[in-house]
Design goal:
This protein is α+β, with helices and mostly antiparallel strands. The protein has 4 helices and 4 strands, in the order αββααββα. Helix 1 packs across helix 4.
Length: about 150
């Protein structure tokens, strides 16, 4: 088991390694992530000791509003699947990130562990392949989803 300091250093090394991976593979981009203009929604990289995720996380504090935002995403599910592939997963109540439920549209890479260095290249390749797909879907449907949400207010 890792001490708190060792785990922190390993996480830092992991994310610095991802930056180096991107540089080595000529991936020079600024990821959208928190710049998402759909309220209570983020594009997110996530990794723990079981899985890696690339996701739209919908985490409004009000569950009813979170469901409304998720429903707006759902209305573009077929189009997003055509753009992103059939391995795009959808969960209205996703509990895999901790204590609080969120809604999620995501890709998952199972059986990887951030604390196992030999998994890092697979995780980095997964991140670099899948995040551009979600970012493109974001740019494609952002204005439509935002307009629908404004009409629901």
């Amino acid at each position: 088991m890792w001490s708190k300091e060792e785990a922190k250093e390993l996480r830092l090394n992991f994310w610095n390694g991802f930056k180096r991976y991107c540089s080595r593979h000529h991936i020079y981009r600024k990821w959208v992530l928190t710049g998402v203009k759909i309220k209570s929604t983020q594009l997110k990289f996530y990794v723990d000791n079981e899985k890696a995720l690339v996701m739209f996380q919908i985490d409004h504090k009000n569950d009813l509003r979170r469901y409304e935002v998720y429903e707006c995403f759902q209305s573009y599910r077929k189009l997003m699947a055509a753009d992103c592939g059939e391995d795009l997963l959808w969960e209205e109540d996703y509990a895999g990130l901790g204590e609080r439920l969120v809604s999620a549209v995501y890709f998952e890479l199972k059986n990887v562990n951030m604390y196992r260095r030999e998994d890092w290249e697979r995780i980095y390749a997964f991140f670099a392949e899948k995040m551009p797909l979600l970012e493109e879907a974001y740019w494609e449907y952002r204005d439509l989803i935002s307009a629908r949400l404004k009409n629901m207010d």
